[in-house]
Amino acid sequence: MDGVAVVTGAGSGIGRAVAQELAARRQRVVALDMNLDGAKATAAFAPDLIAFRQTDVTSPEQVDEARDWTLANFGAPSVVVNAAGWDKTAPFLNATVEFARKVLDINLFGPILVARAFLPAMIESGGGRLVNIASDAGRVGSSGESIYAGAKGGVIALSKSLAREMARHSITVNCVCPGPTDTPLFAAQDERLKEALVRAIPLKRLASPEEVAAAVVFFASEEARYITGQVLSVSGGLTMAG
Fold first, then answer.
1. Active site includes 148?
2. Is residue 148 within 8 Å of 106, Cβ to Cβ?
3. Exposure pattern of 167-202 as b/e (b: 16+ CB <10 Å)?
4. How many Cβ atoms are within 10 Å of 74's Cβ, its own excluded?
5. Domains of the chain
6. Is this structure's pTM higher than 0.85?
């Protein structure tokens, strides 16, 4: 792999697994996360290949600063992965306006800001790969995650629309939709909900972050150069959506 890959949410979970798998394939990586300690821990996997920067993807100023820093130090990215995400399971009618805005800001507005920041440089450099992490909640819905599902559904639609706009610039845009995955975010959910989800998965276990990262890395690879606008579920068969 050539160039640099920018990965948001790289301080833990799927984002960390993506950053480290790309580095394992000798890709230079910029790991962005608002959790500085988490980003540092990710970079420790391959300090010669992974740089890190504290970045809140909901802040236009911080995203633009991260872009400027990346361009100044490494040049235009060939790969951008939007992996930052957050949620907390709760009934829709219990959700406050503040909670809804936080979920939408992190899960939908964040990818919009990151794409807006980095795509011009990718266009100028001649192309690249944008991979967005959505969720199967955005494809089929999820009880207790209505706002999150709405945000991730937006990411799916955003990915397809950007794929149409960016094709003429040789930039592919694809979307990976994890099902329940063994991440710190999942670990924070209600125990009964977690047990019920595992029972419902045909493969009878959670995904590992590395299994989701494998799909992301494929979309980022040269092998996927003719694939764009696609949505791939990594859910152990839980959501066999058409």
1. yes
2. no
3. eebebbbbbbbbbbbbbebbeebeeeebeebeeebe
4. 16
5. 4-234 (3.40.50.720)
6. yes
Q: How many residues does the chain have?
A: 242
Contact by Cβ (8 Å): 231, 156 = yes
Q: Following DSSP, what letter does each residue of the chain receive, concatenated?
A: --SEEEEETTTSHHHHHHHHHHHHTT-EEEEEES-HHHHHHHHTTSTTTEEEEE--TT-HHHHHHHHHHHHHHH-SEEEEEE---------GGG--HHHHHHHHIIIIIHHHHHHHHHHHHHHHHT-EEEEEE--THHHH--TT-HHHHHHHHHHHHHHHHHHHHHGGGTEEEEEEEE-SBSSHHHHTS-HHHHHHHHHHSTTSSPBPHHHHHHHHHHHHSGGGTT--S-EEEESTTS----
Q: Are 209 and 14 in contact (CB under 8 A)?
A: yes
The residue with tokens 């266009």 is 123
pLDDT tens by residue, the chain, 242 residues: 568 999 999 999 999 999 999 999 999 999 999 999 999 999 999 999 999 999 999 999 999 999 999 999 999 999 999 999 999 988 999 999 999 999 999 999 999 999 999 999 999 999 999 999 999 989 988 888 899 999 999 999 999 999 999 999 999 999 999 988 777 777 767 677 777 778 878 788 888 999 999 999 999 999 999 999 999 999 888 877 55
Active-site entry in 52, 148, 186, 219: 148
